[in-house]
Design goal:
The protein has 139 residues and is mainly alpha-helical. The protein has one domain. The chain is 76% helix and 0% strand. The protein contains 7 helices and no strands. Helix 4 packs across helix 5, helix 5 packs antiparallel against helix 6 and helix 6 runs antiparallel to helix 7. The longest helix has 24 residues. It is elongated and about 45 Å long.
Length: 139
């Protein structure tokens, strides 16, 4: 009898709304996708470009500064995820915005603070899109 009661309790805990709810499953799916993309092989230095071929001052700054490199990896990973989760029209908008981001980053030259701000602003856009996708659950 005790064994049955403990199984029932374990089952209730294992499938509570926080663990099995649509939002939790959506967050889990996005998290697993991010982990999978993060595990893909990347060029040395940064996720979105090859540091060995970096010529522009902003690219060189990203390759030379660990915090910028980390922001680049995060932004590139989120971009890859978001562009696969949204519809064609929204995807085109995000691609246009990405080209504008690259111009904005280039305008920073080698100014680390300016480049970091550009990345943080871009990452905030992707996080907003991800939040919107997750809110559409259940998945």
């Amino acid at each position: 009898m005790k064994r049955s009661a403990s199984r029932a309790t374990a089952g209730a805990l294992a499938c509570s709304p926080l663990v099995c709810g649509p939002l939790a499953l959506g967050v889990l799916a996005v998290g697993l996708l991010m982990l999978g993309l993060a595990a893909l092989p990347r060029p040395a230095g940064a996720a979105s470009f090859d540091c060995a071929a970096a010529k522009a001052p902003d690219e060189k700054a990203v390759c030379a500064t660990r915090s910028l490199n980390d922001l680049d990896v995060k932004m590139a990973t989120q971009y890859a995820i978001v562009t696969r989760l949204v519809g064609m029209g929204r995807r085109g908008d995000l691609q246009d915005q990405q080209r504008a981001f690259l111009k904005q980053r280039a305008a920073c030259g080698s100014n680390v603070a300016c480049i970091a701000k550009a990345y943080q602003d871009r990452i905030a856009v992707f996080e907003g899109v991800l939040d919107g996708v997750v809110s559409l659950g259940p998945f």
